[in-house]
Amino acid sequence: MQKVEDQIKRLAAFTSVMLIAAAEAMAQDKQQSTRRIVVSLADRKLAVVEDDKVVRIFEVAVGAPVSPSPVGIFKIANSIADPTWYGKGKVVPPGKGNPIGTRWLGLSLQGYGIHGTNVPSSIGHAASHGCIRMRNREVEELFKMVRVGDPVELYAERNPELDRFFERATLVAETSATAGMVSGPNAQ
Fold first, then answer.
1. Which residue range forms the structural domain that includes residue 53?
2. Is 186 a member of any domain?
3. Residue among 37, 114, 131, 162 flagged as catalytic
4. Would residue 125 show up in a list of annotated catalytic residues for this protein?
5. Alpha helix positions (H), 32-159
6. What pTM, to 2 d.p., does this model score?
7. Residue range 88-127, pLDDT digits in tens
8. Is 14 within a domain?
């Protein structure tokens, strides 16, 4: 009888330790921030969102009408610094002539990604073959902010959440443009 009681006490102790460990693990999970990349194709903007707050907004180029960017929720599948570009019968090593610039964040939809460019004047336009293009210095900043596995959401049209994320950026841009027109030595 004593053996059974000892086994029950050990089992109770073990169960207590396991419950405490599980509670601590759940608490740590709740403390980790949730990060995602949200792209408004219509606005040609990308937001890094952590814990439902916009951390940074970048202007981007999106897919041209003949090669539109995909819409949906994907994940960052890989990240490559100084990537090599492989095109139709052509290979371009890292460097100034590389069409995908200095960084590649591949999406879980094969062939698509977020990357730099060797044509920075395309930023803000529908000019890519479906990928999300960024200025090289900005994609390098983004590259440091995100990890493989982070979700990437691409939206074709505005929704209330996108309005909230991008409204401030639009207002700041409009205010800056208006201030530039109103201020100055010849302002009336």
1. 35-158
2. no
3. 131
4. no
5. 136-145
6. 0.74
7. 889 999 999 999 999 999 999 999 999 999 999 999 999 9
8. no
Domain count, the chain: 1
**Listed residue (69, 49, 67) closest to 58, CA to CA:** 49
- The question of whether 131 is a catalytic residue gets the answer yes
The edge-to-edge listing of strands for the beta sheet with 151-155 is: 53-59, 45-50, 35-40, 151-155, 72-81, 103-107, 113-115, 132-133
Q: Within a domain: residue 151? A: yes
Decide if 68 is inside a domain.
yes
Residue 124, domain CATH: 2.40.440.10
pLDDT in tens, 143-172: 999 999 999 999 999 999 999 998 855 544
**Active site residue: 44, 45, 103, 115, which one?**
115
3-class state of residue 44 by DSSP: coil
Q: How many helices (H) and strands (E) does the chain have?
A: 3, 12
Of the candidates 60, 69, 58, the one whose C-alpha atom is nearest the C-alpha of residue 111 is: 69
Residue located via tokens 């907004």 = 57
**What residue ranges in 111-171 does DSSP mark as E strands?**
113-115, 126-128, 132-133, 151-155
